[in-house]
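> example.struct
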């Protein structure tokens, strides 16, 4: 039942609450087995889109592998891209007295951290934890009751990707949601690299899905190339971006899900893998094998250059050597 309900939710049904319990299978026999205790985990996902969905799926798979399906139960809730709802979800988890919170994306993580300083919180699909928590000189460990995994791909290589595809371009528009601190961090950093290569860059921020079309059109009209970071709001609105840009302006993306929807190319990670790693970390915390206050943020082990064949065809361009087709 748990897997069936989650599959329905992750397939695009925008729900605010879904409670699921462990299945009927016996716990797997391994070092991390729960030993009879059933742990309760709250999963807060900011919005439904392929990258975050994959991270949640990876987390659940790891927890099942480490604790057994009968060794834990979870309450999955989706904030439907509404920041106040993230706070409501986090408060609900605290009231329930869950043993751990998995927060998928930065707004969900920030809301969970604001709601409790005691319950362990693991983030995933979070780009830069130092930015998320306004930690200057971030050393890799948040401390307290927070740790997790990052979806950050090297930003210098993302900037270089644009030069490899469009060395003669002159203007780059950086399109992102102003409500997402990590998106601001990414575009600021990529802009520095691009300007060092001689590009002229302009930032174009939208506040939510209501104004993304107008802002994207302005950016497309004024730019040779667009760059979109790992931005949850952009990921939820790729059809809007694609409708404006396809065949007209190439879009380079911070992650594969956005690129599949509207982009030309990306330097991406596996969100399933970072979600799985988060699940492994959760199992260690719950079974007493690790202390969250000393757990460093984990990063993806590898990055893959990918391109969108349909978008490239619409633009009449060919991928450079070293790129793998999305879905291929």
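> example.seq
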């Amino acid at each position: 039942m748990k897997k069936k309900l989650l599959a329905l939710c992750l397939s695009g049904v925008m729900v605010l609450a879904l409670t699921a319990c462990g299945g009927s299978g016996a716990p797997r026999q391994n070092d991390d087995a729960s030993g009879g205790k059933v742990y309760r985990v709250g999963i807060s996902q900011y919005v439904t889109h392929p990258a975050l969905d994959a991270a949640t799926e990876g987390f659940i798979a790891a927890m099942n592998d480490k604790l057994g399906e009968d060794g834990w139960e979870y309450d999955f809730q989706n904030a439907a891209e509404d920041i106040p709802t993230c706070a409501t979800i986090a408060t609900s988890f605290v009231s329930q007295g869950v043993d751990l919170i998995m927060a998928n994306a930065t707004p969900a993580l920030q809301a969970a951290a604001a709601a409790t300083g005691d319950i362990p919180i693991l983030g995933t699909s979070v780009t830069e934890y130092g930015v998320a928590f306004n930690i200057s000189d971030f050393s890799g460990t948040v401390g307290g009751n927070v740790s997790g995994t990052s979806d950050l791909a090297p930003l210098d290589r993302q900037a270089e990707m644009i030069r490899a595809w469009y060395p003669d371009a002159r203007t780059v528009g950086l399109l992102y949601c102003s409500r997402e601190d990590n998106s601001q961090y990414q575009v600021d950093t990529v802009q520095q690299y691009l300007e060092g290569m001689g590009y002229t860059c302009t930032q174009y921020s939208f506040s939510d899905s209501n104004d993304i079309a107008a802002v994207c059109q302005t950016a497309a009209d004024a730019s040779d190339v667009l760059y979109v970071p790992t931005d949850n709001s952009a990921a939820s609105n790729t059809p809007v971006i694609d409708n404006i840009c396809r065949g007209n302006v190439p879009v380079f993306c911070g992650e594969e899900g956005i690129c599949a929807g509207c982009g030309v190319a990306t330097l991406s990670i596996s969100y399933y893998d970072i979600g799985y790693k988060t699940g492994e970390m959760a199992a260690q915390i719950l079974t007493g094998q690790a202390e969250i206050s000393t757990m460093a943020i984990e990063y993806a082990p590898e990055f893959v250059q990918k391109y969108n064949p349909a978008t490239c065809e619409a633009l009449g361009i060919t991928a450079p050597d070293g790129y793998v087709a999305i879905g291929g």
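> remarks
Confidence is low (pLDDT under 50) at residues 1-32.
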